[in-house]
């Protein structure tokens, strides 16, 4: 039976003091701090389900803090402090797994960053911009030429004509665009509907905005939207629905029918839509549909996107939000006090990137489809149940044929005993139990890396 889960800010936690000679890790649990342990060994719970430790012992900031305390033994030692709205959020699972990958020499098919570089013509444009002296603060909401390039690209993709001066805000990655949207348009107590599993920053930034989260769970194998449940979830207190298509972590793409139904419900109930479309150029079996392009939806939609996924330049952190002026105002107000402005030379180069010939995007999709085939066929040969992925560069699988109790235990085993990294998907749910049987692999790696990972799993991973 599909259930609706509702989250409100948790109770105040009592921080624990620590001895300067002991390293600690944060975990997803009722306690704020726990001694360093393996993932499988930690038995405390997040809402009574699974816990998610981190590797803060390897964090320079924590090492420095402990070192400073060792050097200043006469000072009174204080417990670590954090605002109540962030108490429940610890080190991200991506940091944890990437650290484990380094420690055990594992092939990292977990975190979604390419192990190959972006196109030369874009990098050369950045170098030229730096040489040309474009190195001071950019205009707060974006370099004019880049804003124009975003508008041009959006028109090609959706047919919509937008005003680059009034309807586009350049941000430091899509993550900041998400944060600026939540903080600029959501009031404390507003209801926002998410579809689980979801990208982890959604919950965190909504928590910072003081929102009340309602969660609609998407279930395998097709992760279809339960329309009746969504209809019941929308109330007079619902401020917005947050959509991610193509969808991380499942690879699902929202169908036109699903988007049209959501649009009708939002118009009927005067609800906003925030749509994260960073994987729009990685749509394989289906065509990407932007929510803003549906009838009556542009005026109530904030479209979020970025450069990193399409051009394999995730470290540049160049993102943007497209919205009508009455919504852009709130986004820009928050953006002004989050980062104020985004990297100037990278914006000039990003303008060049978005004006790339269509052949670039065709080749990008062809290349990723070949990588996807290597990974999917390999995972099936190993013995996983592989769920369909129509977009993004992620694949979700059922790990239960291998006999581990949950996704955390499986991912730890996979790293330590097999030498491959995956991401446990339970961290993408309000109720982690919903994702305990699933793990996510990424294929944004070169073909040699993908084949090497598959070979390791074929050799060492055995069904139980």
* Helix share bin: 25-40%
- On the 0 to 100 scale, the average pLDDT is 86
- Count of the domains: 2
SSE string? EEEHHEHHEHEHEHEHEEHEHHHEEHEEEH
Which runs of at least 5 residues are low in confidence (pLDDT < 50)? 1-73
Instruction: Work out the radius of gyration.
Output: 22 Å
Q: Which class of secondary structure composition applies to the elements?
A: alpha/beta
* Strand arrangement across the biggest beta sheet: 1-7-6-8-9-10-11-5
- Assembly of the depicted chains: single chain
Largest sheet descriptor = 8 strands, mixed
- Give the CATH H-level superfamily of the largest domain: Type I PLP-dependent aspartate aminotransferase-like (Major domain)
Strand content: 5-15%
Query: Which descriptor suits the 3D outline?
Result: globular
Q: Alpha-carbon distance between the termini?
A: 28 Å
CATH topology of the largest domain: Aspartate Aminotransferase, domain 2
Number of strands: 16
Number of helices in the DSSP assignment: 14
The CATH architecture of the largest domain can be given as: 3-Layer(aba) Sandwich
**CATH structural class of the largest domain:** Alpha Beta
